[in-house]
Write a structure and sequence with these properties.
This protein is α+β, with helices and mostly antiparallel strands and 93 residues long. 51% of the residues lie in helices and 13% in strands. It has two domains: 1-49, no CATH class; 52-93. It has helices at 34-49, 51-67, 76-89; strands spanning 10-13, 16-19, 24-27. The chain has a three-stranded antiparallel β-sheet, with helices on one face.
Length: 93
């Protein structure tokens, strides 16, 4: 599937998540107390910025695992959850 989101990688810069082409993908806000604000903002921003790579890594893991399976096994529930996460990211859920 061709990605419909802004192509990664994304980077954190001054509270914004920016794409390689310089466009803003998102702006991060935190609702924590002032003392926790910077840590919360940074953590949220890093997680969002990692989203394209996380999605691609999850896709590759699912494909790799399914390619090695010959039938039902204990990985089925984990793979089901991984596929649900991929579908959510790709707006298929």
């Amino acid at each position: 599937m061709t990605a419909q989101h802004t192509k990664g990688p994304w980077h954190v810069k001054n509270g914004f998540i920016d794409a390689e082409n310089g466009s803003h993908v998102a702006e991060v806000h935190a609702t924590a107390k002032k003392s926790e604000f910077e840590a919360t903002l940074g953590a949220n921003a890093r997680l969002i910025a990692a989203a394209p790579e996380l999605l691609e890594a999850l896709r590759e893991c699912v494909e790799y695992i399914y390619d090695g399976l010959d039938g039902p096994n204990d990985m089925a529930p984990v793979l089901h959850e991984a596929r649900k996460a991929i579908a959510k990211a790709e707006a298929k859920s």
